[in-house]
Design a protein that fits this description.
The termini are far apart. This protein has one domain. It is built from 5 helices and no strands. The radius of gyration is 18 Å and the shape is globular. It is about 65% helix and about 0% strand. InterPro entries: SpoIIM-like.
Length: about 190
């Protein structure tokens, strides 16, 4: 079984294009004024008491990070598939927007270890979301074929094994992010 075919490579490029679109939209914004999202809510908080806002599972930051990222992966893949890729494109554009604000704010940061850790975990996280995004963008072909009443190509339907690699990449990214938080918030 080939993991990625030529169509998936095109979908990855489309995902990158939407990420870049979001980054271009955020570039003119003064990131230094909007860098509040990079500051921890309480500099004296213990690592098990941080609330990320969206999800907090049994006081475990690591599980919260993994679950939050998996929810985004499901949103990008299943939600994108059901909306013909529109939701995937919207999430990628928003993430590109936030990524550019983060990059611009971190460029003002004096602590290089924070920048490195953001970059290391981002490589795995973005790769995982792009792989999940190929599932979401496949929804376009599904709906197009359904509307045109063409026979469904079997490649449109997703094998559950396709989600294993991006899930593993998200766990790796969450591990790096967890240690980044643990070592920088005391």
């Amino acid at each position: 079984m080939k993991y990625i075919d030529a169509r998936d490579c095109r979908y990855i490029l489309v995902g990158i294009a939407f990420w870049l679109l979001g980054m271009m939209m955020a570039y003119p914004i003064d990131a230094e004024r909007h860098a509040y999202f990079l500051r921890p809510p309480n500099h004296h908080a213990k690592i098990d008491s941080i609330d990320f806002g969206m999800l907090h599972i049994n006081g475990s930051v690591f599980l919260s990070i993994v679950a939050n990222n998996l929810l985004i992966g499901i949103l990008v893949s299943a939600g994108g598939f059901l909306t013909g890729g529109i939701l995937t494109a919207a999430v990628f554009t928003w993430n590109g927007f936030i990524l550019m604000l983060t990059i611009r704010a971190l460029s003002q940061c004096q602590d290089e270890s924070i920048v490195e850790l953001f970059a290391f975990h981002g490589i795995f996280e973005i790769s995982a979301f792009l792989l999940f995004g190929t599932i979401g963008f496949r929804g376009f072909s599904f709906w197009k074929n359904l509307i045109e009443k063409d026979p469904m190509p079997p490649a449109v339907f997703i094998n559950w094994k396709f989600a294993l690699l991006p899930t593993l990449l998200l766990v790796i990214a969450a591990t790096i992010e967890y240690y980044m938080i643990k070592t920088n918030i005391r």
